[in-house]
Structures are given as structure tokens and as C-alpha cells.
Amino acid sequence: MGLRLVLFFIFKFFLILHPSAVLAQLSLNFNNTELAPEPFICPGQKSIKAKPSSPSNEEELGLPSLDLLSTALATYPHQTIENTTQSTPLRFAKDLKQPIKVGLWGDSHLAANFFSEELIKSIGITKEDTLPSFFAANIGRAGVRLPLRKSCLGGGWKYSYAYNATPQNSSNAVMSNGFPIGMIRMQAKNQDSYLWLDFRTQALSMPAMQSLEILLDPVGTDEQTILGITLDEGIAENRVEVGRLSKLSINADFPFSTMKIRLIRGSLSLDGFIPHYTKTPKINIDNLAIPGSTAKSWTNLSTANGEIPPYDLVILAYGTNEGNNPKFDSTTYQADLQLGLTNFRRIYPNTACVLLGPTDRGILVPSNKHLKKGVKPKPIPDLLKYSKVHATISSIQEREASIAGCAFWDWQKAMGGMGSAYTWAFEKPPLMSKDLIHLTIPGYQRSARQFSSDFLLKSLINP
Length: 463
Fold this sequence. Notes:
The chain has helices spanning 66-74, 108-111, 114-123, 320-323, 330-347, 385-403, 411-415, 420-425, 441-454, 457-461; strands at residues 24-30, 61-62, 100-106, 130-131, 135-136, 150-154, 158-161, 184-188, 194-198, 209-216, 226-231, 238-241, 245-256, 258-265, 268-277, 283-287, 313-317, 352-356, 365-366, 407-409. With 463 residues, it is α/β, with parallel strands linked by helices. Strands 1, 5, 7, 8, 10, 13 and 15 form a seven-stranded mixed beta sheet that branches. The protein has a six-stranded parallel beta sheet with strand order 4-16-3-17-18-20. Helix 5 (330-347) runs parallel beside helix 6. Mean pLDDT is 82; it is low at 1-23, 52-58, 78-84 and 169-176.
């Protein structure tokens, strides 16, 4: 192929005797390559065929009837389905300059990216002018949609999460270096475990990057770890020993779009990726939400050795998973939220921030359609059980947000208050999904537009 590869090592290595020690970095430089490849095909990828549904022995569950719903809502006559939020401009620490940087943390309501995509659209910024500045190590995580054209991984990757981690003062080795700002860590120990990434977005079909930083957890990586790195196509895989590095920098004298990582020997622990593009977007928006996450994630965050992405605006959306706890206690929840927000403010002391309360939530009820004669129908549960808990959580978040110097957006109230999960489910098209927990895509889109309108984001961010 007549291609040449030059591999330069700028390598200053300090033996890691303690997490607070100075950590080494390594730069890997590439030159001369072919044009960006077509989207790759994941190894062993097969078409997924839907399995035929099988009869269930469990009682069929579904939406409550309008009569049941009317009776439940009648106990709370002050609740309406009208939006009662008010416009409140956000206060930014400084004059905004492009690229504007926005970071989103939260649970499954944000992780699918439908809310953030519509939020950018409502501001008036196109997808072509929007790029992420940081990727958390949640590649391949179920329920997460990242602004990547494609990703492949295999070989037994495992995830560790800040929201359910052991407190940092324990002897747990995973927590000895704390969690990165992405609140998640990817780990592989099997030989030939691989991770392929195509950093082109749906709106950006050309090669986009000049360099990339791979953030590593030096405590969780074997000293003898050897990786194989490939950029785009047409050049051979390059092997590099990373040892206990905190960062591996990938540099190229050409714009590249894809990268392949293969674990040749040892173990690998990834904390995230920082891309550096050939163009400057109008806005960087980083979606770091994780399904199942709670605000407790912020109490298990350590940034002593990690990268801290700067943001002009941070959006925090938690509450649904806390409210799902059958032993939910408002006092304990408030204490956990206080600790999380205190740590958030330690890391981002001046960043504009908004807490998003949980959405409304409903309960599916037994249909009692196929009961045998003589069988007593199952009782109907309290249709507003979770609505009440979410209202309590929202009230606590509003108070704690004010103390932390953050704004608050009552998502449940924006939907219409307690019971609105049902009214949204009956909309055409439905705005609430069939589980009565998550919204549909149109539901997230409507919510994002309302959020943008309530905080006058279009005039603030894109005047």
C-alpha cells in the first residue's frame, strides 16, 4: 500500500505507589492513512429476530379505565393537567462564548438522548453545529444512545457505577481511585476484548477528529497491559504498553473518524474519551446520563486524578429511581441529595445548573378479564402511589436546588401534576410509554420544548 507509520513515544513514567502519585501520560502519533472507511460491521453481528410471544401465567396488566382514573384524581381536586411552570432565565457565571458547553447527568429519562436532541433543536442550533466534548465510558450500555455513528464491543466488558458503589472510605479496590466525572467505568480482562468506535455523527459524515485522549483508571489497569490501536483503515494495528497510565493521547496528521482498541494482554479500565475536532461547533453537549442512576452518584465521585470538563450549564435529572425504592424515606433522600449537591458545587462552583424533578408516574392495573368463575378479582392499587412520592421528591429538590444555587424545573408539574402520566398515556399519539414510567419520544420532545421555553434558552444561548 506504500503507507508509512511513525510511532513516537513521549513517555514519562512514574511508578504508581499511591493514587495521589503523579500519573504518566503517553502520546501515540500516526501519519499517512487512506480515506475514512465505510461504517464497519461488528464482529459476529447478526440480524436480531423477534421471538414470538408466549402465553403468560401472570395476570395481564394495563392502563386503568377512565372511571377508575377519575375516582383517583377526584381525591386530589387541586391537580390539573395544565402547565403551571413559569419562565425563569438562567444566570450564567460569565458571558457565553462559542462553543457553549452543556453537560447532562441523570437517569434513563435523559440517557436515551431524545430530550437533549430536542432541547438543542428548540434553541435553534442545528445538529451540524453540535458536537460532544466528552464521552463517558458507557459504550454499549443498554438504554444509552450516544452521538456516535456506530460502536462495537465484545470479549466480556463489565461496568462499574458510581450510584451503587461502596463508599470511598472502604477498602474496595475499585473505589480506591474514586469514580470519573462520567460516573461509570468500563473494564475488560479477557484477551482480545475489543472496542470499536466511529466518531462520526449522523449529521457529520466526514472525518472529524485530529486527536483523541483516552482516559484510563491507573488503579484498575494491569501494569503489563498491552493494547492494539488502529485508526481508520489501511494501516496495521499498533501495539502500545500502557502500564498504569492515566491518559493515552492519540494524535494524527490527518482527520480520522474511527478507532479500534484491542486488549492484547493484561487488563483495561476505561474512564472516558475526550475528542478534539477539526471544526469548532456552536455548542458542545455531553449526555452523561445512565439508566438506573441516582443523585447519590455525586457522593462517590473523585476527581483528584481525573479530567473535569468545563461547562456553562449543567442539567441534573434524578428522582425516579430513588422513588422506586419501596423503603423510600424523605429524610434519607434529602440527606443524600445534600451530599451530592455539595460535591457537585465543589467541582463546579460557578456553573449555572438546573435540577429536573422526576416525571409523573402511574401504575398498571390487573385487567381481570380472563378470571375463572368464582375467582375473586385482584384489588386495584393506589393509582397515585408513585405520583405522591415523586411530588415529595420534587418538593425536596426545589428546596435543595435553591440552597445549592441551582434553578429547579418541576417535570411532574410541567406534565400536569399528579395523575398526568395517565392523561399523557391517553394522548394521540401517546406521550407516556406503556410502562407508565418513561415517556415516549414525542413525550420527551414536548418536555424539552417546554423546558427550553420556561428558561428562555433560545434567547440566552442563541440570541
